[in-house]
UniProtKB/TrEMBL annotation:
Gene3D superfamilies: 3.90.1200.10. This is Kinase-like protein. Residues 41-212 form the Aminoglycoside phosphotransferase domain. SUPFAM superfamilies: Protein kinase-like (PK-like).
Amino acid sequence: QDITPERVLELLPHGQVISSHSTKVVQIPHDLVVKYGHFVKAAEAQSIMLVSENTSIPVPSVLLVFKKEHDTYIVMRLIRGRTLQDCWEELSNPLREEVLDQFTEYVTELRFLSSEGHTPGPLDGGKCEGQWWTQYGAGPFKTYQDLLSWLNRKLSQSSRTHPLFSDEYPLVFTHQDLCPMNLILDDSNKLWVMDWGMAGWYPAYFEYACVKSPEAYMATRTGWISAALPRLPNYEAEASKLEIMRFALTFLPFC
């Protein structure tokens, strides 16, 4: 049976709830998953399709995107497996290395996508969202210089002694939340990358900073971060500047 918005809305009340936070994820028949809510953006589906069409990274297949009232719905194929949050600690060392090799390859592939013709941030040209953009988001930014000006204003508000961000680092396609909860290992030990809701074109140091951040550490509480960080290009100096910005992100979000 063809999947339509009407059919999805009919099935949702009887589905299996996977997540029931502000963004809801529900499994419905025919091995489908529906992610929906006020904070879900069609740009997430755009990101998944960009990655699917231009890399070898395993991501869910997007079958349908639609909007009803204030909520956006993304219908995808169900990916069966276990999150690294649940299984990392019990994996053998050889299997951990295999998983890390896949992870390294995925990040490399993302960084080779061309940002030519794209504005900074999400693919729909909307606000930048994630832990470095205040709880309200920031932008949208028309140019890389606009984005840098915003970052440097927040950095200066937090500390006047640190050198500013520069444009020496290119914009690369960035997931922004490569935590164990968003990485699924299937029965064939293939690693799938989920939850592309914060993905977009960001400075090259953002992926490293997002994986390293205290926020990520508190969310994972596994050995994943210490294993994954050495596999990423090291941007310790820039990541430190982003951490220093947290004062302004918290207390001066609109300045």
